[in-house]
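Q: Flagellar hook-associated protein 3, please. Structure only.
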Amino acid sequence: MNLRTTQLNITSQILSQIQRYSYTLSQHYRDISSGVNITRPSENINNYNKILYHSTESKRISSTIDNIHTLNNTLDYIVNSLLDINNVLLRASQIASTGSDTTLDQSTMRALADEIDVMINNILNISNRKMYDNYLFSGAALNITPFVISSYDINGRINNITYMGSTNNSNAFISDDIIIPLYYTGNVFLQNNGKNIFQSLIDLRNALLADLPQRSSLLGSAMQDIELARDHITGVIGSISSHLSGLRSYSEQLDKLLYDHQVMQSELQSTDYADAIVRMNQSQYLLQASMAIIARYYNFSFLDYIT
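A: Structure for Flagellar hook-associated protein 3:
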């Protein structure tokens, strides 16, 4: 009775060892095949919590970096749009200078005025551009068309363009201490003298169509307004470029921080292949030894039942 009980206990222990070694061996196979050695808290609670922390921080930082890239794209597009407007204003300034020539006939002056009308429409289209389905220059009113034609003169030319957007910029919150304007208001197009770019161009066009005695003074005033508009646009471009520079610097810091978290997570989680192979071989040897032992206890032959 005692012998059978002892044999039963030994068999139970060996089977338990076989089960344990089989599980350990499967874990080593998994670690080697996947390259990951910790997937559950039970495997190493301290390292698992560290891995979870680094993983969470990596996702948070990656999300912030993605947001910065989106902001960069939007601000780059705004800068390019303002540069396009500045180029149009440069041409308008050249036309104003050309129009001051008193020897030009009326047909030439009308042609110059027509070109200014084209410029007004061009700037109107630029000022109503969108990025990610939001208007660039409508401020916080992202879905409101910022500039609309509100009146025409008796000859069908644009006489007034009205701003319909918000008076507040739409700001982007990058961190607790980094907040920058993202979508700008129509003040971008407002000069220091209270005129907007459209009114300055309309005044320039009307000056080109004015009679000769008044033309010179009107053109002089219009040229001054155009230069003020260009100076204002240049200042806005400089301000946005400063924000872009700050975003690039912050993004580089985040890239380094993200890399550090990823390295730490990898070091904690990645399989040490040399160690894993040694441990796998040990588990395999122990499993084989246990299987051999249990086989000896149940090593019966058909001949045992003949006698």
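A: Brief note, in case it's useful. The domain at 55-262 is CATH 1.20.1330.10 (f41 fragment of flagellin, N-terminal domain).
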